[in-house]
Structures
1.
Amino acid sequence: MLKIQHFTVEHRIEPLGLDEERPAFSYRLESDRRNVVQKKMRLVVRQGENTVWDTGMTESGETLYHIYAGAPLAPCTRYDVKVHAEDNHGDTASAETCFETGLMPRISPVKAQFVTHGFEEENLCPVLCKRFSCGKKVRGARLYASALGMYDLMLNGERVGDLYFTPYWTSYRYALEYQTYDVTALLREHNELEMTLADGWYKGELTWLRKKNLYGDRLAGWLELHVCYEDGTTEKIVTDETWQSRQSSIISSLYDGECQNFCAEKGETRPARVYAHDTGILVSQLNEPVRRREILKVKEILKSPQGETILDFGQNLTGRVEFRARGKKGQKVVLRFAEVLDRYGNLYTDNLRTAKATDTFILSGKEQTYAPRFTFHGFRYCEVQGADGLTLEDFRAVAMYSDMARSGRLETSDEDMNKLYENQFWSNRGNFLDLPTDCPQRDERLGWTADAMIYCRTACTNFNAYLFFRKWLKDVAHEQSTEYGVPHIVPNPLEQTDSAAAAWSDAAAVIPWVLYRVYGDRRILEEQFGSMRGWVDYVAAHADRDGLWKSNFQFGDWLALDMDEFSDRTGSTDKYFLANAFYLNSARIVCDAAHVLGRADDEKKYRALYENLLSAMQREYITATGRMVSETQTAYVIALCFDIVPENFRQAFVERLSADIKRRGHFMTGFLGTPFICFALTDNGRQSLTDLILRRDKYPSWLYPIRHGATTMWERWNSRLENGDFNPGDMNSFNHCAYGSVAEWLYRRLAGIEEIEPGYRKIRICPVYSAGYYDYSRGTVTASDEVSPVYMEGIDRVKGTYESVYGEISAETDYKEGVLRVKIPPNTTALVVTPDGKEHEVGSGSYVFTFGSLR
């Protein structure tokens, strides 16, 4: 039987407030047959009784990204969509969905104005208020809202929606998102609407420099409420000079936390004032909103040496602590947060730098839930002061992050690998709160471009991150300039104009290409091509006569272990070798993107640039005898993975890299080498060395943090030292995605799931056999002073699943049974390579392949 599932509009299920003028429709086929492909399809879009687009029954094998080509879409309008599909077996299926357009400000100017409060000071979060009546029966109501600052909404005493930290952080000078809410069920005959504002990213303190009022020095709200009555009439309530304002009892800071006084009386009411600000920058929210996700109970109640009560939630996360209590009126409860405890059992907060990470509540004496509204913390531990009479078991930690659908899962017979995978997944959660951040806890929490570039592919396997990155890439393009390139951080609160750097700025080219390869939507290349090309052109303009880039500040192989970090954090690898390697990679990507887009002249231009640059790099950085000028692990890894090494020298490069790892027993790589080192070894026949570095549990290694209690990925290989003390550096996050990029290797090599064609239209299933390895670090010294290494067994079983845009792909390999079980979704094909090297071309369906036990 044929079924249609996951019918989406612009990568979303039944979206509200869509501003796309030509949205794309996609769906997945499901069938109990094998070798299923679509042969025909029909899409029909209706507005009420009127058909606005009908493709007719069309010969088509494509289930993805059918671009709307009907009559112009109207703002604030519901459209119903139906698809009918027929496969190669003659089976048919239908499905329906709907979407609702937003305000579409580009084609229909908005009516509401920004309004601000009537007070001089903004120490307390202001509240904008409006009372209104609905004199007739309401059929439906939509509320569109945004703010200069953060906002949340209350309608008749009920919180509007389940979104947090709206309207999120964009490059506010160019774009400001608005959100759409269905408030039909909240409306009464007489209504009161409140919008509370907080500094947020708009005017709050940002970065370790605590820069304030970066985008403006005044909070303001913007709102339109559209009410449709049963008799067909409509009414709009908008922010204007008729609104009132008052001060709340909330003081809020992103870094320092929040104070709420529930005993305070409501302050005086003053007329709100219209605030002049361009409404032309308003855009409908592009990505998934931040929501409350996992809720964790207290795992253990601890006492510090000073007698403070500390709640251990058992997991480092990003979010907040909530508790429901009555307490005494005026009782003061203070919550302080930390990721770790020191070796004596105290909260360790030095790594927060200037961030106070403290929430304070003055209780009302009534039974209610207490939680901050405009801040979040990175923490595992919460110190509670003033909790007399409260039940500590009623405290909950709530993880909060962008509500992306989970895509990938990985499970092995090795608990260390499972924990490593789980830890990187929690770091993904914690650092994807609307934009890809470096860390969620200290006075930073910024969109560092290298962190995003390094981790993007892994994130896209963990989650459906297409919309998440699409939104952020628009800000990359906004912050980019011909004169200064792409900044280190996006959005750019440092306002640096000379901050272009290799790998960091290469995010502009790399991430759109990753999104295209993973999701198969070429529109991301169309949208970002100007930015991608612009970055490569910037570097070309700063290159020397040989075409090599040898200027600008470079981060190098950040935090690599082959250089004393206190003298130089950029590592020993030649920084300009790395700069040119990533320049070369971006030039190739732009060439490939031009080919996909049919831009023949650009393809020719950037192919020539790539070839000339490759030749120049080989002359500059590789000797005539086949040695790297920069003899580091990262240099060899990048040369191998970026195909810089001439083929006749490849084996020599592999041998030198292997010899260095064997000699040391571990890697020495930093931010740029680490994501590629497992690929460099595995793809060049050195899987035993991949096993060695991947499963080592002494410093430095991926498992060292796990042995020391980590539940997320660390910023440094030794954020915590063997003796329980902490790395003395001023950057010491215990929740950092970058080194979690190893999960890309776990998915693509260990589980063996990889795309051959964009979107996984054609799939390669080729699990890498983990046969085991000799661990010299565990060895014993023989009588002849030689080390007798300990043999470490390989991994017996690996199962990976990935929810692609076509459907679920799975590969489960059992090396003891000698069995590979595979599932391939309809409308795709796969090349399955079993561990004995045999290749099998298959269509959709479930298959079992045997290859003989390898254990």
2.
Amino acid sequence: MGLCPSFPSRLKTKKGDEKEKWSESWKDTLTSIGFNNGPITSAGVDVESEDNIFKPIQQDNILPQIPISCHHPVPRKGIVNKYNKTLQTNKFYANAFLGNQDQPIWTHPYFIWWGRGNSGKDVFETWGMNIAHIEEQELVYGEGNPARAYINPRRQSLIITAPELDRLSGLTTDTHLPFSVNINLVHRSTGEEPKITFPVVQGMGFVTASFRSATPIIQCPGKGFKSISQPVPVGKSTKFRIKDDDGRDWVAYVNPVPGLEYDTSSFIATDEHNFIGPSNFKGTIQIAKNPLGPEGEAIYDKAAGSFAAEAILTGTIDDIKGKYTLSYTRVGQSPLLMFVLPHHIQSLDSDLKPNVTKLQLRTTTKGIATAIWGEKLTFLEPNLPTTMGFAPWTPTINLPRLRQFAQSVPLLTTIALQDMHAAIALETPPDSMYFAGKTLAKFATILFVLKDILNNPGYVEGLTKLKAEMARYIQNKQKHPLFYDDDWKGLVSNAGFTEGPGADFGNTYYNDHHFHYGYFVYTAAVIGTLDPGWLAEGDNKAWTNMLVKDFAESDYNGRDYPFSRSFDWWVGHSWAKGLFESADGKDQESSSEDGFAGLAVRMWGRVCGDGGMESRGTLMLALQSRTFNTYFYISPTNPLNPPNAPSNQSSIHPPLYTPNLLTGILFENKVDHATYFGTAPHLIHGIHMLPISPATFYLRRNVVWVREEWEKYFSNGRALGVEGGWKGVLVANSGVLDARGAWEFFLNGEGGKWEGSWIDGGASRCWYLVWVAGVGGLGVEGDEREVEPRGGAVL
């Protein structure tokens, strides 16, 4: 680690120092591709619109108590960043600049990876770009029935390369945007000038390779091509129909730049593996898999020659209705064809339904992708949780009745005060931003219960201590202070600089920032609610905004942090993995903590007066609720693949896996019913429950699925047999099914005995009591003994 003696971020940005507008970032792409393959069009996007919720949070400015590091342990391999723009650490393409740069990148439905000259059993050696699409019958399963895991094998389907690429070749990336990147294959003899550039965009309809004076080769590994058709003219392009070594159908389009004298009909198969075109090609080659026969081919013919270069996200909120739009920059004259995921089809604006095609391809872990026409795709979320606050929440909750009920139970007040005094005496864990954040968030929730639910003035004593604890972090005087990393542009703990990549769950390497910082942001929001004057004191507001900017920046042109580091607005949830090369891509093992980060953004925006931030957090929660129930929580009563998906692929995940009912760790390339810290069911499922929060009922909205999960793993006393804080997590979660049983457990314990160890370090007994009472509908005016619990006894 090295420290920068001075840093311009401490200064206010001058107008002349601002980066190019978002639309101008295409300059980098043109530089990379080196030619204009046709008109560049961008669907009209006004990111400055008053209605657009993606607005800057606050002016970039690193606070003076935050040291600045110039030498992160992870090198920026092959990154071309002419204008020193912010870089994405947690996005789908990070493998392109990490490790050996030869792990896959998943765009869905395809994944691609650089061959890097690698060889081995069943590996076709190449210095070009491998392309893969895997069918369900090719999956590899883990042990057991149901299978503990499934993985998509890394099996080369086709390859795009050139003979000019060899052991002196390298890979660079440029134009690192939230939904896209350019990947370049270069040769040392020509410096950084690419031989081939791949404009990589999530959901891209083709794998597109832009050649710059190179000789194009399409390769087929395995036993080689089954067949290659004669050239077929399609407008200004030439098409070849290809059958790979499994006999599966692909189409390839050769699109020379206008005016280039190039004989596209002169491609020849030199052997069963190589299909080679004339040298000195300038233009694009586009490849796509075609499972639909002539109908699919007609779709691809219509789209050939065009590709997406970037996407811009905008959004609006009107009462409980949210809308977000991805507007693509199209290069080429043909209409733009993109693929979307099942949750996109669920929420697609009805005006765009006619643009949906019958063309579908399986993705690795996100179900069936559907091809759709359009440069501007709009999606609707019609039931935003706009009334959600810090209290327990359901769409029909009666908070006045909950308060009345809670205040009528003297033991609850006693428990809350005991929880507060225990929190006052408890040392905030010094070694971890994650555990410190959980501890402070628990403390804040206890104070909220005392003040808002129980109307007890005793909270003031605890608030004084909580402010003092937060002040230590705001002043950056904790054991492992935060540093601003000027290499990768973010806020990191210094623990990993001395203790290695695994310190504090990889925080220094950008793992889990939405988890770690989300707890602090939530705590600040509660403090600002209990004492609004705190917001104006010192750096309290600026420091909290700084955390939000690190993991949920909303400014496309931000100087210090990348746009939306953690949350992927295309897949609809966050990725927890940061700067770690990964054979299976990004992953996330806690949907619930992802949702809690969304809640934290929403509530901090409300408390600090940033309406745009509040709206973004609210929309994040809506997407999370949709995608968690589509991709993470597995049930026939949860959303399935689009209606016209193959009959044997109605579920998102394969039948041999679905009885697990939960993904466990969801990767881009595999699903593993496990955690990083154990394989017991209470760990796998519990990490998708904690923290029990106001958002829990909204995120785990399918009560039928909650009951299915409970019956399979925790019924008949199994939950009560779990040791430690996980027991409390499980019982609290059961409050949706059996509020009275959970209430009695947290109020009286087992056999009249209570153990404090049953409560997780990020939770409290008083909060669990209030939560199960709220979501379970406990509390009838006058006599709580007349309660009719929801569901039946489950413990």
3.
Amino acid sequence: MVCIRETKWLRTRLGDYRVPSDCILYGPEWQSIAPITLLPFIDDSDNYYGKVIHEYTKELKSMGVVIDFKDGVDFVAAGLYFPGDPSCITPSNVLALLECFRILLQDRNYSFPDSVRTRISKKWLKTYDGYRPPDQCLLFDSKWGSYLKCTDGPFVDEGFYGSNITSYRKELKAIGVVVDVGNGCPLIASQLDFHLEFSSVVRIYNYLMAFNWEPNCEAAKRIWIPNGSEDGEWVSPGECVLRDKDGLFSSQLQVLEKHYEQQLLVFFSSAFHVKHTPSVDDYCELWKVWEGSGNQLSHADCCKFWAYVLKHWNAKTERTLADSLVKLPVGSDSDGILLSDKQDVFIADDLQLKDLFQRSSPNLYLSVHTIPFATLDVEEVSGSQPAEVHNFVQGKWIESSSWNTILDPLNGEPFIKVAEVDETGIKPFVESLSKCPKHGLHNPFKEPERYLLFGDISAKAAHMLSLPKVSDFFTRLIQRVAPKSYQQALGEVQVTQKFLENFSGDQVRFLARSFAVPGNHLGQQSHGFRWPYGPVAIITPFNFPLEIPVLQLMGALYMGNKPVLKVDSKVSIVMEQMMRLLHYCGLPADDADFINADGKTMNKLLLEANPRMTLFTGSSRVADKLAVDLKGRIKLEDAGFDWKILGPDVQEEDYVAWVCDQDAYACSGQKCSAQSMLFMHEPVANLFPSINVDNLVTTLVQNWSRSSLVSKLKDLAEGRKLEDLTIGPVLTFTTEAMLEHTTKLLQIPGSKLLFGGEPLKNHSIPPIYGALKPTAVYVPLEEMLKAKNYELVTREIFGPFQIITEYTRDQLPMVLDALERMHAHLTAAVEVIGKSVNGTTYAGLRARTTGAPQNHWFGPAGDPRGAGIGTPEAIKLVWSCHREIIYDFGPLPNRWAIPPSS
């Protein structure tokens, strides 16, 4: 028997002799696979064994001959032989081969030999785009269907193979077919050239955008410009521009906004680096076209051209125009403008050009001259035209060896490059601070005229911010980096402007007002003075990119300190532009430094420079670390879990609901003072015995709970829209983190989701940020106070999120206990004043937690490290210390003699 098994004595259809274990007995199972393989079937032809051999199936199997398909799959893999014409391959052939692969892959350690991969790399799979090798094919399913049609790419032809082909997803993936929807971008993009139908091209672009595809070579960088629905042309990105606001380039450039929706414009900018607007070079090329046309220009087109030039005027623009322009505009007796050789042009009065502009557009001349300090155009900052943020030290703007790229919070474009200083680059900042003496740059006895200087600077800066063009510039810039509604961003600018206005004229020196107290004898007096610290540091967060840093920076400067200012890099571009405005208004260049750095680098700078005082606005965790590192030389405005208590009297429900909505959800809840918890008075106990969430807002009974407050609050919250940024990106919490927190809260007995609790829809906010609908969760007061729940319930979520609860009059001590146990005491709106410690507390019907104008103190209480902002008292507390000087000039008493020692 051993001899039979080991001797090559069985003849196969391949014409050779083999041992039994290397042979297959042909049967019906082998019919589908046979046409695409060369397998060692026993020769059952009439010329050899004949069909009678099949009568010995049992005996052959006992010798080792392969009978069943499942036992011979290794032969199939090794014997693959596709015909030269792939159209000869039937669906059953392919399905049989995939079944073979399925059996092979049941062994987790199995991998296709190189010889097999070489054989299957031929064109044998039928797609809607013809026959292709597996790695050039895609498998269509419902996930793909969310973006594309099966004819949009080389998808395996399900109509040819039947729906059963999709059951071999794993096997197709193993041989190289792309089955995951996120991995098909290269193949789909490679098919773009074969599409002429505009709707197909748009579908493909939307798919590529959804998975952040970028072309990997110049050949792939082509954009379809439609001409009707089924015709058009492919052009390079360099021939395109997203927008043409002036309407001048329809003949020179392809303007994409004419053909594509806003979302795809963002995609073209980020993936293809298409310019947002025509460049200076484009305008020069346009002028050359006009020069060569021989036609007159309209006043409107001429003004648009030169308005653009003035808006983008710098040394480079000047050189470009000087090299490019041959002719210049001159007046004519007709309605148009002539172009004449520039050597023949005589400018009799430069006001003539100004007058021409003003007659064409009365606001044009002002619009291009009212922001002399700005180094960017807010609307043009984008992935294709990123803005740059520099550092300022020792009187000059500097770059850095490393750049931190900031993503646009609304669409994910890398739209700002921040020159961040690393630990090796802090030396100039350390040296700059060390040059400032402990007695400051000025004090009541040293250069007191600087108090007047800063009054003048404040007046000029206030005036600049009062100009509509400048105010709009900062409002829109704030919106770009910390998205909030226009009104909220404008409010920040207006508060800053009013603050500067408040400290104009003599008001700065009034901050340094001293006092005198009579002494014990003639000639003795004690005088108290407000004294600067000298070198100081300011660290501010992202949520108020203008208001917080300006108010604290100016407060430090008013009192005679030299500050180094660090603003969160995500928004530091706002303060960089404000520093340029302050320099324009007369701020001495050596008086303040501006640094972009990460937290680790800034911490090292503080330790090496050893500022006499540091103002920190931000998280409690960092605040506590800095307090130790800086040995207590610090003032803090850290986290605030802020609350509102509604007493028993129901009044003006619409107004109270509006205030609660504004406090909780304006700026997407990203205010230090945002309402995090709402206590509603309810005298009836056991309010929620067993109710479903749909009836929750209607079953709140008695007083505020009985009123329609919660339903009104829900309606207001649901009216917030991403389109006007009344709800927007959350910059410090991801969507997943906020939803996870919501889920944990809803596991507390008796808790309910009042509204929200879902991600925003139809947006392009990058996943590193959060996108959550305004959310409120009800938590029973008794459950909140339990030790296992309290930390969770009072965790500050810096986003559109609040806790709502209720209390009875008998439970007021429990409410006060809840407040007492909170770590942060920043702001509150409260009926009970005498038993709470929050720093800025609003009381009364119109009370709010987020009212922080320039006319009152804003800051925490109950902490000796607590800082304030906005008022003379806040500035004196944070940015100066008390210095007592005792004058004692005599005269000596008559007959004075040396007394005995004591």
